[in-house]
Write a structure and sequence with these properties.
alpha/beta; Aspartate Aminotransferase, domain 2; seven-stranded mixed β-sheet; 18% strand; binds pyridoxal-5'-phosphate
Length: 399
Amino acid sequence: MSEQQKSKETLIMEEDGNYIAPIYSRYPLVLEKGKGVTVWDAEGRSYLDFTSGIGVNCLGFCDEAWGEAVFQQLKTLQHCSNLYYTKPAIQLAKLLTQRTGMRKVFFCNSGAEANECAIKIARKHGNAKGKGADIITLWDSFHGRTMATITATGQEHYHHHFHPFVPGFHYVTPRLEEVKDKLDQGACGILLEIIQGEGGVRVLAPEFLKGAADLCRKRGALFMVDEVQTGTGRTGALFAYQKLGLKPDLVTFAKGMGGGLPMGGVLMNRVTENVLVPGDHGTTFGANPAICAGALEVLNRLTPEFLEEVNGKGEYLRDGLLSIPGVEDVEGMGLMWGFRVRGKAVKEVVAAALPLGLLLLTAQDKIRLLPPLIISVEELEKGLKILQKAIGGKTELVV
Ligand SMILES: *Cc1c(COP(=O)(O)O)cnc(C)c1O
């Protein structure tokens, strides 16, 4: 093909291959601009977004008030490091503690970093109490890509090639006997997701979660929840643990909190707030004032009424999924759902939905839906119709 005949998109994709390290397998789509739940590609085609950039854009694309908050702060003071005090971080931390009942916050830049911090707190706490430094995590979990967090991740296919791993991680299936055994052998804490996201949208049983929290409390081990994906309103509560009435010692968050900019963090309670002291931990970029100003807008928008709507829209989405022939094993909460399609590989469904104008995610052998929390019922309905078409195998374009 001559250069003239190639589409603008093909040329961009070739450039990517020439210069970007081949670490991702991408869909053949160059995204150019977005507004709300709609995103446009370089050829001007529009797509309904049921991914939120993997659970990140909770207010959708380019929310006006969020953008304005970030922009104002960018023009005022964009960064100064953690050597000095800044107001946006303090305001955000205050609001987060008020709305969670936790006591202190550490801000960083990603989910993996948030979990690294939680792991360090658990180990320092465990070592000081003579409990050792071993940490329990679950099979099918996902906690990040750094050395400690891929070790914590209980999925063997992430564990090839990167030996030696960080010692002291033990995997269990979600059964209390297994947790008890491992705690008896001397673990300093357990780290788990309330709903396993990358692992296939698996909702853990509330009895298991409550039981595990109780076992930890009785043995002086830390109960740590990774809310990187389930947090920031995703499940219809600010954090999923709040829905279940759990009392974690540490809560990690990231994805949705920055509304599209890199932000992660750890919430600490009375037991954990003073474990790390100056010199133990830190980050150059963490608590960036502009990102904190945007996160403050995110948090202010996630009112109890807004979260109620997330629950209502979630029920609508679940009912819609259940009504599509071929959709099976629908599981989730709020606006986080996973399901299988009878007789179809997930990749086929995602590929069929793409030209019909719908962006979907996968998680293991399931389709995963993480639409922006601001999505309307009409947009959900439109997405469900496209999904049904994609599953039914029809390929005509929906406008
Ligand atoms: C995405 C994710 C992470 C990793 O977050 P990064 O920002 O990619 O480092 C950790 N835990 C869970 C539950 C996640 O979904």
